[in-house]
Structure formats: C-alpha cells, structure tokens
From TrEMBL:
<feature type="domain" description="Helicase C-terminal">
    <location>
        <begin position="240"/>
        <end position="406"/>
    </location>
</feature>
<dbReference type="GO" id="GO:0000724">
    <property type="term" value="P:double-strand break repair via homologous recombination"/>
</dbReference>
<protein>
    <recommendedName>
        <fullName>ATP-dependent DNA helicase</fullName>
        <ecNumber>5.6.2.4</ecNumber>
    </recommendedName>
</protein>
<keyword id="KW-0547">Nucleotide-binding</keyword>
<keyword id="KW-0539">Nucleus</keyword>
<comment type="similarity">
    <text>Belongs to the helicase family. RecQ subfamily.</text>
</comment>
<dbReference type="GO" id="GO:0003676">
    <property type="term" value="F:nucleic acid binding"/>
</dbReference>
<dbReference type="InterPro" id="IPR014001">
    <property type="entry name" value="Helicase_ATP-bd"/>
</dbReference>
<keyword id="KW-0067">ATP-binding</keyword>
<dbReference type="Pfam" id="PF00270">
    <property type="entry name" value="DEAD"/>
</dbReference>
<feature type="domain" description="Helicase ATP-binding">
    <location>
        <begin position="34"/>
        <end position="208"/>
    </location>
</feature>
<dbReference type="InterPro" id="IPR001650">
    <property type="entry name" value="Helicase_C-like"/>
</dbReference>
<dbReference type="Pfam" id="PF16124">
    <property type="entry name" value="RecQ_Zn_bind"/>
</dbReference>
<dbReference type="GO" id="GO:0005524">
    <property type="term" value="F:ATP binding"/>
</dbReference>
<dbReference type="GO" id="GO:0016887">
    <property type="term" value="F:ATP hydrolysis activity"/>
</dbReference>
<dbReference type="GO" id="GO:0005737">
    <property type="term" value="C:cytoplasm"/>
</dbReference>
<dbReference type="InterPro" id="IPR032284">
    <property type="entry name" value="RecQ_Zn-bd"/>
</dbReference>
Length: 478
C-alpha cells in the first residue's frame, strides 16, 4: 500500500516552527523526520536523549488535518508536554487515570463529534485497550480525521527492552484496525533486537516500503561521564559528594564568576542537579544529610503525597532556594525536561544500562557542559543482581534485565575505553564519537586505573560475603 498522502505536505514547516513552537531553527534531522511524517510514511526515530523527538510528532500534528494520538507510558511526561503545548496555543489534552471526570467528558464528547478540535491527545497504552475508547477512535477514523499514531518511549513495547509494559503489545490494534493511518515510534534506548521487536509488534515490518527509519547516534558529547569507585567497608559517598559540590560553590563565589552570576541574578548555590538513589529511605535520609550540610536538597519518590511532589518539582524547575538538588528514586526519570541541570549523580548502581543512559540524559539539555558521575561498588552490583533474580513479577524479561545490568557493570569496571564510545557500542552505533576530555578515561586514564584498584572490594571478598548471606537483607531496599 503506498503511503497516505496528506493534503498539507507543502506547508512551510519552518514557519510553523517559528510561529507555533517559538523556535528559530530545526535541529539536525528534525526537518527530514517531519517531512517523512507529513509525506504519510510510518516513521521510526531513534535519537539521543534531549534530541528533540517530541517536536517530530507535535509539528506534523499542528499541520495535518485530524487528531494525533500520542501513546506515552508516563503521566508526568504527558502532563508536562500537554501544558507546554497549551501554553503555545495548541489544542492538546491527556486522557489517563488522573483526568478529572469533567475533562474526561469534554474529551469524549469532542471525539464523538467525529471531527475533534483536539490536535494532540496523549493517552496511556492501557487506555488504548479499552473498548469505548476504541469505538470513539473508529468513529473519528470513519470521518477521515485520524491523522497519526505516535508512540513515545517505544522501547516499552519490547520484552527485550527495559521498562517493558504488556499493554504496549496491544498497540498492534492500531495497524490492524486503521491500516491507512501512519504510525511514528520514538525512543532513545533501543538496540537492533529491540528495534526489530517494535516494528514486528506494531506490524510495521509488513510494509517495509512505507517506513522511514532515522537512527541517530546516542552520543551526548556535552556530558562528562565518570565512575567513582567505592566499597561498603570504606563508604565515602557523602563526604566525596559534599567535597565536590562545595568546591563547585567556591568556584562560583570567586571573581569574576561571582559578578557574572550577580548580573544574571543567579544564586551561587543554584547548581541544579539530580541525585538518583534506589530506595525511598535513602532518598529521605540523603536529602536530610545534604540539607544539614547546607545544600538545598529535596526528596522525590512515589510515596510522597501528590501535592508535595508537585511543589518540589515546580520549585526545582523555577530554581527556588532550597530546591537546587532533587534526590530521587527512578520514579523521577524519563521525560524530565529542565534545561539547566548541571549534574546527575547516581548514588547507587541503576538496574539497567538503559536506565542509566536515560537518567544521565536529564543533564545538559541546554547543550552546555554537565557532569555525571556514578558511585559504583561491587556490593551494590550484588544487591541489584539479587533484586532482579528475586523479582518474579518481571520474569518474562528476566534474562534481558540481567544482561542489561551485566553490561552496565562491565561499563563501570572497564577502565580501558571511552565512556561515550562504550555507550554507542551498547546501542549498536558503529561510529565512534570523538571525546573531548568528556570522560574519566580520556581525562586521565592513569588516575582512573588507580581509583579502580584502590576503590573496589575484591570479587573474592564480595562473593564470600554473598555466600555468608551479608546482602540477603538488602534486596528489599532496592
Ligand atoms: N528545533 C529546536 N530548537 C530549540 N529547542 C528545541 C528544538 N527542538 C526541541 N527543542 C527543545 O529541546 C528539548 C528536548 O526536547 P524533547 O523533550 O522532545 O527531547 P527528547 O528527544 O524527547 O528527549 P528524551 O528522550 O531525553 O526525553 C525541549 O525543551 C524542546 O523544547
């Protein structure tokens, strides 16, 4: 079947970019992706964190006739995007478990007209499985008003990927029911196997002539990537971090930096950052310790009341005093889009390579240099492995989860390669990026080796401790 030709494909998309999205120019490849979408193709986009993937479906949605359905796994991500679109005067809404009954009624009535005014409707994959919602979309489609399906964070479709969600598998319904409606899928974290799986599940591989694939490098050259080695016996994370952050504050207090900051009305301590921990308790206790040491840190985890979470997020985004650093569990991850995050610290080993990449991807979204370091200990590796092994709920992709963790451990323990090159290799990117002293290996490989040798507990020690049951009680913390 030839790609569906859209009536407005000749529109000046640069004009729409400036008028509706208030941006001066496209970033590299955005124009080609948007043109492919407007040409009626299915589109697969794989690009680095902060590339600007959302614009690739938002701009066509403004130009095309009809509604674009955006499937997104994260409520926070939806809410952020819908608010930004509304602020730009674009008719966008979201429909999920948090939508108020009035708003839900309004959206449903809009769909039932068959000619919805809504340009972009953000929904969860769970909602797409509901029969009432499906009937409403069929009605819209009969009126030729279903413009496109965009599937964000498309790696959630694959059992080989991280964050697998079973309702994503049911999205095959879209191609089966609306064979003429183009589909766009976007992700920052897929390897060749995950990519194939996405195309297969969505049935896009059945019409290879329709699809345009854009594979961009995952490289984030403005992030300085570093591993800091530690061990239970001599756990120096807190003192090491405090030394680092206070040194940053000192540099900002020194002239001429202080005068520059004063001119920009910026506080010395406004060095915006995120520290990822893995347990809620540590999230609370660490942020309290940092506050005791004069650092403006706040906890963020799933169990906090909704209004506290919203307040924390708003104050952090607005650079308010006392809210410079968010100490978060992974509940605070994909999709956070604050431009001036200057550092991301992993207090503990994340559970997957993809999770690590997504989380460091919150830093430096304005393109300026930003610092990312991860405290790695072999004891933590043992704890996370145990947690994955004991997590029976996720046994459908247990092996790929373990493989991803092992790849991350290998990355941390590899002292003979560029961190950026290792990330590219993991995601199957063949071109090795030039690294401008932007990782610990390229900055000082001798120092890296020395820290590695001095910092870690021996493998024998950790496995003896494991056999004696030292880590058994820790699994629940993660
Ligand atoms: N052409 C552009 N000019 C300037 N800013 C842009 C442009 N395109 C996108 N942006 C901005 O870049 C930021 C990142 O975009 P977006 O959130 O879509 O990234 P993403 O590729 O989805 O990243 P992630 O996978 O990390 O969520 C946003 O603040 C967006 O407004």
């Amino acid at each position: 079947m030839p790609p569906l030709q859209r009536v407005n494909s000749c529109t000046d998309i640069g004009f729409t970019l400036r008028r509706q999205f208030h941006k001066d120019d496209f970033r590299p490849h955005q124009r080609e992706i948007i043109e492919a979408a407007l040409g009626g193709h299915d589109v697969y986009v794989q690009a680095a964190t902060s590339f600007g993937k959302s614009l690739c479906f938002q701009l066509p949605a403004v130009i095309d006739q009809g509604i674009t359905i955006v499937v997104s796994p994260l409520l926070s991500l939806m809410i952020n995007q819908v608010e930004a679109l509304k602020a730009a005067g674009i008719d966008a809404s979201s429909l999920n478990s948090n939508t108020s009954p009035d708003e839900r009624d309004r959206i449903q009535r809009d769909l039932e007209t068959g000619h919805p005014r809504t340009r972009l409707l953000y929904v969860t994959p769970e909602l797409c499985s509901g029969s009432r919602f499906r009937q409403r979309l069929q009605l819209v489609h009969r009126q030729k008003e279903l413009a496109r399906i965009a599937i964000d964070e498309a790696h959630c479709i694959s059992e080989w990927g991280h964050d697998f969600r079973k309702d994503f598998k049911r999205l095959s319904w879209f191609r089966e029911t609306f064979p003429d409606v183009p589909i766009m899928c976007l992700t920052a974290t897929a390897n060749a196997q995950v990519r194939q799986d996405i195309l297969k599940v969505l049935r896009l591989d059945a019409t290879p002539e329709r699809i345009k694939t854009f594979l961009m490098s995952p490289e984030r050259g403005n992030l300085h990537l570093e591993i800091r080695y530690t061990k239970d016996e001599d756990d120096n994370r807190l003192s090491d971090f405090l030394k680092w952050i206070h040194a940053v504050y000192e540099r900002r207090r020194a002239e001429p930096r202080q005068s520059e900051l004063a001119k920009q009305r910026e506080r010395t301590e406004n060095v915006s950052g995120i520290i990822y921990t893995t347990s809620r308790d540590e999230c609370e206790s660490l942020s309290a310790s940092l506050r005791d040491a004069g650092v403006g840190a706040r906890p963020f985890h799933a169990k906090l009341p909704k209004d506290v979470k919203e307040d924390t997020l708003t104050n952090w985004i607005n650079n308010e005093p006392g809210y410079d650093i968010i100490v978060a569990t992974t509940a605070f991850g994909m999709g956070i889009d604050k431009d001036n995050v200057r550092f991301v610290v992993h207090w503990r080993l994340p559970k997957s390579f993809e999770g690590y990449y997504q989380e460091v991807g919150r830093a430096g979204r304005d393109g300026n240099a930003s610092y990312c370091f991860l405290y790695y200990s072999r004891e933590d590796l043992e704890r996370v492995s145990r947690m994955i092994k004991s997590d029976t709920k996720a046994d459908s992709n247990y092996e790929s989860r373990l493989r991803s963790l092992q790849a991350l451990a290998y990355y941390c323990e590899n002292i003979n390669a560029c961190r950026h090159a290792s990330i590219c290799k993991y995601f199957g990117e063949e071109t090795i990026p030039a690294c401008d002293f932007a990782c610990d290996f390229h900055k000082n490989s001798d120092d890296l080796e020395e820290r590695f040798v001095r910092g870690l507990a021996s493998e024998e020690w950790v496995s003896t401790q494991a056999m004696q049951g030292t880590y058994d009680n820790y699994a629940g913390d993660y």
